[in-house]
Structure formats: C-alpha cells, structure tokens
Design a protein that fits this description.
single chain, 203 residues, two-stranded antiparallel sheet, 5 helices, mainly alpha
C-alpha cells in the first residue's frame, strides 16, 4: 500500500502521451485510477484460496481494458502499478492460505483433544468397573473364608476352597486387566503438549 501511494504521489503510476490541458489530464488520471482501484478492491474482497488464478487474470484484463479506453485521452496506467496490485494479490492469497492452514490445524487439535477425552473417560470407566469387581470378589472370598472356618464338614470345606480358588483366579485376571488399563492411561498421558499462542497479548 505504501509503495502504491508513493508511486501515485510521484506521478509515476501514469504514462502521459499527450494532454489537452492540465485539468483534463488530472481528471483522466483520477478517473482511470479510481476505476482500476475499485475493480481491484472488489476482486480482492472476493478472493479465495481456490480462485487466485481467475482473480489474477481479471486484474490484468482490467488493467489492459482501462488503458485501451483512456489511451485516446493520452493517459494510461504504468505497468509498475499492475505489478504492485499483483503483489498485493499474492500477499492477500498467502495470508488467506495461512489462515486456512491455521483453522485446519486448530480443528485437528480440537479433534485430537476430543478423542483423548473420550479415551480418558473410557479408561476411567474401565478402572471403576475393575475396582468394583475386585471389591466384590474380595468380599466374597472373605465371606467364604468365614463360612469355611465355621463348618466341620470336609465336603463343604472343599467346596469353599474350590470357590475361593476360582475367585482368586478371577482376581488375578482383574489385576492383569487393571495393569493393562494403567499402562494405556500412562501412554495416553504421554501424548501431546498443546501450546495456544496469542501474539501480542499481555505485552
């Protein structure tokens, strides 16, 4: 924008072939510049990451068309002004591309965080279920041990022993399951560090 203003201010934005009067020349310069800038502004406002080639072509065509129209009045736009406008187009496109990439990156981060939260909740649910089952089996073992101590029948004692052994096997399986869940939890925590930056905030 500064380059453009300097070019216009210095008068180098125009090529004058002839002029009938200073006022007529200045009016034509203002008119051609106003038309070109208005068309460029409108095109840049509608720029997207998908239509840059089309917009570039339209800017160039606008430049050529306006020069043909005003050539009969002895005023045309200098090619340097077109270069500046095309550079502005490229910079605007690059900025929009970066914005889109940042949106996609933020979207991916949010999706990852949502997925990690799902995993965390599932792990917590599994841990709670395992702990509940462990408590239940431990309580049953204690009850069976108490029953076994009270009975004098060898047959009943053997039944209690077999049941206790079965519960202890289940408890070992639960302990293995719990270890797997805890390992999964540790690996889930050792994932990503999210850095959210807002440049310029807090000085």
């Amino acid at each position: 924008k500064n380059e453009e203003q300097e070019l216009i201010k210095s008068g180098n934005a125009f090529d004058i072939s002839f002029s009938s009067s200073r006022k007529a020349t200045n009016d034509n310069k203002k008119q051609i510049l106003r038309c070109f800038q208005a068309e460029c502004t409108n095109l840049l406002l509608n720029l997207s990451v998908k239509n840059i080639d089309s917009v570039r072509s339209k800017i160039a065509k606008s430049f050529e068309s306006l020069n043909k129209i005003f050539e009969i009045d002895g005023v045309v736009l200098n090619s340097k002004l077109l270069e500046i406008k095309l550079e502005e187009l490229n910079l605007t496109y690059t900025f929009q591309l970066k914005q889109q990439q940042e949106k996609e990156r933020q979207k991916a981060i949010k999706e990852q965080m949502v997925e990690e939260e799902k995993v965390r909740r599932e792990i917590e649910r599994q841990k709670a279920k395992i702990d509940k089952d462990c408590n239940q089996f431990n309580n049953e073992v204690k009850k069976l041990m108490a029953y076994m101590q009270k009975t004098s029948s060898d047959v009943e004692k053997q039944l209690y022993i077999d049941k206790i052994k079965e519960l202890e096997d289940k408890l070992r399986d639960l302990e293995a399951d719990k270890k797997n869940v805890l390992d999964r939890e540790a690996n889930a925590k050792a994932g990503f560090v999210y850095v959210i930056s807002n440049i310029g905030s807090f000085g």
